[in-house]
Specification:
By secondary structure, the chain is of the alpha/beta class. A hairpin with a 2-residue loop joins strand 4 and strand 5. Helix 1 crosses helix 4, helix 1 packs antiparallel against helix 10 and helix 2 crosses helix 4. It starts with a helix and ends with a helix. Bound molecules: zinc ion. The site of zinc ion has 6 residues, from helix 4.
Length: 425
């Protein structure tokens, strides 16, 4: 193993912190999707002098893209002196809303006791900074490397990735003939390899009724009571059935190894009035009730069976409950993704963690999803993992932070991975 590279990365500690601080100070809040152009230009300005060819790509026409909030992405590509594989580090540049409860400036990027604080420090500007430092150190150490190093900064991961990785994948940027190994430095931990994620299915279910005067409900048909029957059936049948299913995928935390469903919202009857409204409700039987479900399914279940199970319960009510009628509208779907432990990127990062940290990695899978889904489904590239610094539980929290040590360890593992993939054996 090249200790020279690890030493070189050590020397870049202050540079890495300063880079992260700069990134945090560009508030790329999503929604609405602010400052994407600014952060891409910042990255281009940094990477161009290091020999990267930088392309700024706007996801025109993608959901959320507008002239006010354009979805800008950057792909920085540095070719080696000889042909070889392309190793791609993909980080999303967007961060979620600040929320309440901060004791620090969310965009101040304060450094204190080896931690950098700020929105996006952990998810995932810390990972982006670590991957840039790893790549820069590798290139300085090995100017004669084989293949290609690519770094992308992409928009909108927090809102589905359609203006970011999905768009780039549609354009062929993640075609396996172009890119062979993808590492997404999401905050899964410096000693963990994340192989993939569960699937998701979001849908709105509406029960229908008939409006009538509230003093004579028997003249109408109450959509809320019909929805109560739906929820009751879910409690009796669906939730116990889901709780009995476990995935073989190493999903963390443990509770997410089961199949799960959240009832995201419920609305029926008259719309809610603002808190300062002083009028009284009128008396009506609701003719519509809607819920939004957030169903996270296991790779073993599959999307078709997941949908069929819910439709079957609704059809059962339609056949047995007088007056029951419903409609179901899909909002979004995400297929599960799971990279094999034998995939080259997995065995490489496994070896790098072993070399750098002196331990075997912990294999994990994510309870939610991240941009791997687009690289898998649209890009058709299976050799992809998430590996990066930070504690996932810090993501989206007040006083979000990342430790510099964690970033250092991850940068070394990423640098070591580049050596394993792009230097002659
Ligand atoms: Zn993230």
């Amino acid at each position: 193993m090249s200790f020279a590279l690890l030493h070189r990365i050590e020397l870049k500690r202050d540079d890495m912190v300063a880079l992260l601080q700069d990134l945090i100070r560009i508030p790329t809040l999503n929604p609405p999707g602010e400052n994407y152009r600014e952060i891409c230009e910042y990255l281009a300005k940094r990477l161009k002098p290091k020999g990267f060819d930088c392309q700024l790509i706007r996801a025109e026409g993608a959901p959320g893209d507008s002239d006010t909030y354009p979805r800008w992405n950057i792909i920085a590509r540095r070719e080696g002196t000889r042909p070889g594989d392309c190793v791609h580090f993909n980080s999303h540049t967007d961060v979620v809303e600040v929320g309440q409860g901060w004791t620090r400036d969310p965009f101040g990027a304060e450094l204190e006791d080896g931690r950098v604080y700020g929105r996006g420090a952990c998810d995932m500007k810390g990972g982006l900074a670590a991957s840039i430092i790893a790549a820069e150190a590798f290139l300085e150490q090995n100017p004669d490397f084989h293949g290609v190093v690519e770094i992308s900064g992409t928009a909108d991961e927090e809102s589905g990735g359609y203006g970011g990785v999905a768009y780039l994948a549609e354009k062929g940027f993640f075609d396996p003939s172009r890119v062979q190994h993808v590492i997404i430095p999401e905050p899964l931990g410096h000693d963990c390899i994340c192989l993939g994620h569960r699937g998701g299915w979001w849908a709105e279910i509406e029960t229908k009724g008939e409006i009538a005067h509230g003093c004579m409900p028997f003249l109408g048909d109450c959509a809320v009571r019909h929805m109560a029957a739906v929820l009751d059936l879910f409690e009796q049948k669906l939730f116990p059935a889901m709780a009995a299913r476990y995935t073989e995928m190493p999903v963390i935390p443990e509770g997410a190894r089961q199949s799960t469903m959240n009832i995201n919202s419920i609305h029926g009857g008259q719309p809610e009035q603002p808190a300062d409204y002083t009028g009284l409700p009128s008396h009506c039987v609701p003719d519509s009730c809607r819920i939004v479900i957030d169903r996270r399914f296991l790779i073993e279940e599959g999307l078709d069976a997941t949908q069929a199970e819910i439709v079957e319960l609704l059809e059962h009510l339609k056949a047995t409950r007088p007056g029951f009628d419903y409609s179901l509208r899909e909002i979004n779907r995400v297929i599960p993704s799971m990279t094999a432990k034998t995939a080259p990127v997995v065995t490489t990062v496994h070896g790098a963690i072993h070399d750098v940290l002196g331990q075997d990695p912990i294999y994990v899978a994510s309870p939610g999803s991240y941009d791997q889904k687009h690289i898998d489904r649209i890009g058709k590239l299976k050799n992809c993992i998430a590996y990066g610094p930070g504690d996932l539980e810090m993501a989206h929290k007040p006083d979000e932070f990342i430790t510099v040590d964690d970033m250092m360890d991850s940068a070394k593992v990423m640098g070591r991975s580049l050596e394993k993939l792009l230097l002659p054996k």
